Amino acid sequence: MAPISVTAQYADPLLSRFFMSDEEVSQLNVGLQIVKAFYDRQTTNDDSLNYFRRRNARWIEMLLWFKGQQRMAEFLDFLNVADANKSFINVDTEQTRVAPQLVGTLIESMAKSTTYACVEATDVESEDAKKKMLQDALFRMHEIETIKAAQEHSGLELEPPGAFVPNSYEAAVVHFELEDKLPKEIRLEKVIKGVQDEISFDRVANRKTLFYLSAVNLTAGRIEKQAGGRYTVRIAVPTNLIYDFFMNDCGDYEVKKIGEFYNMKVSEFRARFGVSAENPNGLPERKIFDLARMTGMRNVGTFNYAWNYQWSETLYNANRPYDDASILVLDCSIFVGTDQYYVSKKDSYGRENITKKKGVPYQSIDRNGYPVAQDKPEDVEIIKTQKARWMRGIYAPYGATMCYWGEDDYQIQEFYAPGRVLCPWTVVVPNNDGDYVPSLLERLIEPLREYQVTKMKRKVLIAQVRNAGFTIDVESARNIDLGNGDTIEWDEVLRIFLNTGIQVYSSKGVDPLQREAPPLAAPPPDESIQKIIGLTEVIQECLKEMRELVGVPPYRDGSQVGDRTANALAENQNAASYNVTDFIINYNNEFWEKVWYKMCLLHWQDFVREEPESSDDMINFRFRVGVKIKSSEYERQLMEADIQRYSQALDANGKPLLSPKDAMMLRQIDNYKLRCMYLDAVVEENRQRAIQDSQRLQAQNAQVQQAAADKNAQNEMQLEAQKDQRAGQIKRDELTGKKELEIINGIFLVASRTPTGDLPVWLQPLAQAAIANVMMPIVAENQQMQQGLQMVGQAQMNMQQMAQNGGTPPGTVPQLPPPNGQGQPQLPPPQPQMQ
After folding, report:
1. Torsion of CA 538, 540, 546, 551, to 10 degrees
2. Cα–Cα distance between 623 and 599 in angstroms, integer?
3. Chain centroid to CA 56: how far?
4. What is the mean pLDDT of residues 578-601?
5. Do 263 and 406 belong to one domain?
6. Continuous H helices in 518-566
7. Does residue 271 fall inside a structural domain?
8. How many CB atoms lie within 10 A of CB 326?
């Protein structure tokens, strides 16, 4: 039996790509066959939503509803309105835009939670380094005094400046889990942060992925390599995305063919794929012109030339007005696996030598293209492996032209499985089961249609509503004869009815025996108002149903929240509504985790290639990437509660632990972790400052009290000394007075005993001295009395002179003694004179 050819067995290019050599799979015509087969299979089947063509039409229709631009022609049949009689009915065909409000509220509420990437090392060396850092911190905590003493004794820095010293084991664990990072972890996190800033992650990219997951239940993105070895992320438009079958939610290791349609400007297309010195085999200018013409895009830029569908070498040699047109291309990634063969053979020394072979070893091809096996030596072993890689193709479908085919700019090698190559695309389909899965917002389509039809019918009824009016019986309309010769004209009867509502009529007509009805009567009741009220209730029920289906209660968008609505009720409604939408946030985080993980792998490969022996040991670095969520609104509420609590808590001096300036600074910090750290530092600083101020005040009070006690003791000692001195002086004065009294009594006694009354000569000096001592205080007191009398007389003379002059005389008024309560100066009391 003749051997079967691989090419004959697998005529489908999508299958034969796994059985080609490197040279075959790299050929441009082979890439054209593979990509064209992929394109045809996805765009020709319009029976299933699992293929691009029908799925694209459905998604475009849904997106029109979500933007409020739905097609209104489909609703004309519900109103029995055709093109022929459209002018006979008053109907407003403006689209309702309740869907954009619900969608915008939903996306904005989910995007309020800030996400950030976290790189965590998982290799043994990194984990050992973290354990050592934790042990060093615990050692510093227990031996801080010993370390300080050793540093003071030796004069050397035994610990790095600013080394972390925890207060407890739990504080150390929390610090190294949340705050402290290895340098290589920080390096990759900075890379991710730079890409996020470049793509405007918080304001644009993250909201896009949330919208696509909610609207079409799919989001996808591709990592693009830029100049200088930089990488970025391009979010795909789901309506332009084609992909093959896969079962899991994230498409990992299942997606083998994926691509996106987009328009490329002719100028950019020429720079990348046109003929140039770097690309001599590029597309000629006429081919580029034909692709732009077949794409059918008119130029809308600065050039105003009319489109010429005929190529002209002279006309378009210099002036190219079609540069502003676009060419539709399919940018796709195709997974290929080529077999590689190695021959293992041992030499004479028993060492194994492995040699790579281009084709299948010991096999040849006959003239008919069939492989023919050859004899293989017994000591030779054939080793077969498969080289897996991703090829990139750019295909212009409207011209069936392959613009580029080659190996992708990068291959993402996973360090846990070196032979596995990850897809440059990341695709997420929530709740995927291999079949088409309706999205969250697709639930709105049915109630939205009902809502639109009901509103249009209500508009028709509103247009048909007329004033109540009345009917006039022209047979009974006549002038009224009052019987007294007066007549009321019919015009006057009508005016009375219109102005007052009173109808004047005669029940006797031409025939007096037949009673006539009033000529003015009310028309049949109009039921339009009741119908409008009923349709309004239906509209409200439709809106309520839509809110329940997508989890947007009135409290979530604030449309029906009154002034007295309980805060707890609104919070409970919002919390319950997130049960409907939380799976969108979870899958969105899963998508970005995959993207950032691949981004870190690419940078890790570049680090290892450029810095194989770096100090960070990047070659042995293993990591995992996670996306963590921090709810900005919830964190703001927590921080406000902390600010209020610490603003009311008092320190040791009775002042708030948090000042208004500190609260203002806290509200300006965006990072919640930094806010908490700043709050803790400020509160602790204010508490310590208050304790120090309290201790200083207590010390000052103690010093003042001690000084006062010392002063009191000193004053008491001085008083005691003065008392002792005064008591001694009094005792001495008493002794002196007693002695003088005894001397004087003795002198008088001696004088009384002498016949003449004269003192002896020897006693006269003593008598004179004793009497002089007694008289000296009396003389001094008399002199003081005379001076006081002179001062009083002088004062009275001055007062009399001032009274005569009517004013105060110039000069200084003498100081008078204080009054004695009677308006007179207080004079010294008279002293008794010695007789």
Report:
1. -150
2. 12
3. 34
4. 89
5. yes
6. 528-550, 554-557
7. yes
8. 21
Residues 360 and 418 in one domain: yes
Cβ count within 10 A of residue 599: 22
What values do phi and psi take at 396, rounded to 5?
-95, 105
Q: How many structural domains does the chain have?
A: 3
**What does the block give as tokens for 411?**
């291959």
Q: Which residue range(s) make up the domain with 475?
A: 470-524
Q: Are residues 271 and 410 in the same domain?
A: yes
DSSP-derived secondary structure letter, 296:
T
* 3-state class (DSSP) for residue 339: strand
Q: Are 195 and 116 in contact (CB under 8 A)?
A: no
Identify whether residues 318 and 410 lie together within a single domain.
yes
**358: in domain:** yes
Give the predicted TM-score (pTM) of the model.
Answer: 0.70
Count other C-beta atoms under 10 Å from residue 121's C-beta: 19
pLDDT tens profile 460-508: 888 877 777 777 777 777 777 777 777 888 888 888 888 887 878 777 7
Distance CA 530, CA 537 (A): 11
Instruction: Give exposure, 248-287, as e/b (b: 16+ Cβ within 10 Å).
Output: ebbbeebbbbbbbbeebbbeebbebbbeeeeeeebbebeb
Same domain, 409 and 479: no
Tracing tokens 């470049």 back to the chain, one arrives at: 198
Cα torsion angle, 554, 560, 566, 567, sign: positive
Same domain, 297 and 406: yes
- The answer as to whether 783 is a domain residue is yes
Residue with tokens 């479908």: 397
Tally Cβ neighbours within 10 Å of residue 371: 15
What is the C-alpha to C-alpha distance for residues 38 and 751, in angstroms, rounded to an integer? 163
Q: What is the spatial distance between Cα 701 and Cα 398, in angstroms, rounded to a whole number? A: 94
Residue 9 lies in a domain: yes
The size of the chain, in residues, is 835
Backbone angles phi, psi at 463, to 5 degrees: -70, -25
Tokens of 435: 């079949």
What pLDDT was estimated at residue 9? 47
Question: Of 524, 547, 566, which closes a domain?
Answer: 524
What's the one-letter identity of residue 47? D
Which phi and psi (to 5°) does residue 454 adopt? -65, -40
Residues 290 and 409 in one domain: yes
* Domain final residue, candidates 524, 552, 587: 524
Q: How many CB atoms lie within 10 A of CB 186?
A: 12
Neighbours of 762 (CB within 10 A): 7
Write the pLDDT tens digit of every residue in 8-46: 445 778 887 776 777 888 889 999 999 999 999 999 888
Could you give the CA distance from residue 788 to residue 778 in angstroms, rounded to a whole number? 15
Quick: pLDDT tens for 638-659. 778 888 888 878 877 777 878 8
Q: Cα–Cα distance between 563 and 561 in angstroms, integer?
A: 7
Residue type, 138: L
Clarify whether residues 412 and 477 are in a common domain.
no
Residues 504 and 482 sit within 8 Å (Cβ to Cβ):
no
336-to-387, 413, 512 alpha-carbon distances in Å? 8, 15, 108
Residues 233-272 pLDDT 10s: 999 999 999 999 888 888 888 899 999 999 999 889 999 9
Q: What is the pLDDT of residue 26?
A: 86
